[in-house]
Amino acid sequence: MSEGAVKKEEKPRKFQAIRGTRDLLPPETAVWNRVEQTAHEVFGTFGFAEIRPPIFELTELFARSIGSDTDIVSKEMFAFEDRPSELSPPGPNEIPDDYTEAIQKSMDGGLIPSTPSNKRTVAAMRQKLAELHAAEDKRETQEVENAYLWWAFELQDLKLGDALALRPEATASVCRAYVEHGMQQLPQPVKLYYMGPMFRRERPQKGRYRQFYQIGAEVLGGSDAPAIDAEVIEMVMTFFDRLELQGVQLDLNSIGCRECRPKYVELLRAELVKVKDNLGADSQRRIETNPLRVLDSKLETEQGIIATLPRIADHLCDDCKTHYAAVKHQLEMRGVIYRENWRLVRGLDYYMRTTFEITAQGLGSQNAVCGGGRYDGLVELLGGPATKGIGFAIGEDRLILSLQESGKAAVQQGRDVYIAWMGEHARATAIRAAKDLRKAGFSVELPPVELKFGKALGQADKLGAKYALILGDNEVAEGLWTLKTLADGSQAKFTEPELLEHLRKQKALSS
Ligand code: ATP
Ligand code: MG
């Protein structure tokens, strides 16, 4: 039996999409396309241009930017070592000399990083092998074993490949790209947007997936003028408005800066310690790790306590206070309606000052469709120059879920024209007609084999076609084609140019 063939009695395995991932299928994909097209259009009118960073990066990029204490980095990342497959760890029967030389060869060939540390490690492994062989010559079994263990121990230091991770978000990649491509040389600020899949190993539920999609934008460089914050928010709201997203609610807060926030966090921590016994286990833990996140708590029993905690708005430094007031003023000038929410925080260290979140209807408890904020320190944290930054990320899955729940996700389905043809002359004409109609932008279904007219019209109905173009040898000979409107069954005859004109007019009327 050839390799890969399946034994008769064994049923071939059926595969399913991995938990937390899903297939986006038609007709829903048309909604996705509409949403993404609208983003291209709206963001374009605000002077943003698209960036497409890679799907995976060094794990360290995310650890450094998002912070290794966060859930995302500590437990939700899909991380892997980019190790050449021929260098799987040595098996029990592996000859250590061969393995060591294989590593040397891979290093020479650039398959694994030829770093000083790797070179040192290989030298040390060779040294242990020399000791091993010397012991073998003297038949000192214990020594041989020891030398082997030392060899294996050295081996662990070898970095066979880079530690990589699927991106859990894209802000870090955009900042990396900004530095890598010297975008600080461009006119500032640089306004970029992206869209694509993100990956987090979370517990899947409605509106929460392991592969999900974000549409986001970042403004990098230039100043931190409050008008920039306001315009970025105005842009998301314009986008949502264009999509007719329902129940949109914008929450706004300022979380201060490196000067004032640490002092507030200490104050908050001190107050939390006093009420510790009345808090749940999660919040108790967060008093130490990240007290701001306690404000995020949805736990019913904690709400009364949280209401009495000190609020950051009362502890902002003068600069942050002025900035926050100006952002609010700028939003008002743009007619953007917001609600101040002093409990809105971001868990990540790099965020500062303006913070916002947008919720929409129909999503249950995962109702946040967009999160964003200012992150002036991030580019510097990634080895670039001191750079101002602000951005947001929209959860596209949730956005579309909300549009569907509120009946705003209608898409045109079916075909414009189904060509029912019979006869050899008609077949040639049908092929030409399909070409011309498609060129004029109509969607056309041309049955690949001849069908009786009755059957063809039945298919046209099932496919939801608007019109059936009926082409028999008679019609072709006469040069008069019959167009049937399937909704009401009415029929009319047209010459070819008249037909195109008629369809164009109808399409213009219906759109
Ligand atoms: P949440 O509090 O809902 O977990 P988050 O703070 O982790 O959100 P961000 O990292 O700010 O979310 O991402 C921005 C947006 O991306 C969220 O508002 C949400 O719409 C979407 N999002 C985040 N994680 C997921 C996921 N696992 N599945 C689907 N959408 C997600
Ligand atoms: Mg989350």
Outline the structure in words.
This protein has 511 residues and is an alpha+beta fold. It is built from 18 helices and 16 strands. Strands 1-5-6-11-10-9-7-8 form an 8-stranded mixed β-sheet, with helices on both faces. The chain has a 5-stranded mixed β-sheet with strand order 13-12-14-15-16, with helices on both faces. Strands 2-4-3 form a 3-stranded antiparallel β-sheet. A hairpin with a 5-residue loop joins β15 and β16. α1 runs antiparallel to α8 and α4 runs antiparallel to α5. It is globular and about 100 Å long. 32% of the residues are buried. The model has no long low-confidence stretch (mean pLDDT 92). The site of adenosine-5'-triphosphate has 17 residues, from β6, β10, β11 and α14.
Ligand inventory = adenosine-5'-triphosphate, magnesium ion
Rounded to the nearest angstrom, the distance between the terminal CA atoms is 59 Å
Query: Into which percent range does the helicity of residues fall?
Result: 40-55%
The counted number of beta strands is 16
* Major sheet description: 8 strands, mixed
Would you identify the regions where 5 or more consecutive residues have pLDDT less than 50? none
Q: Which structural class do you get from the secondary structure elements?
A: alpha+beta
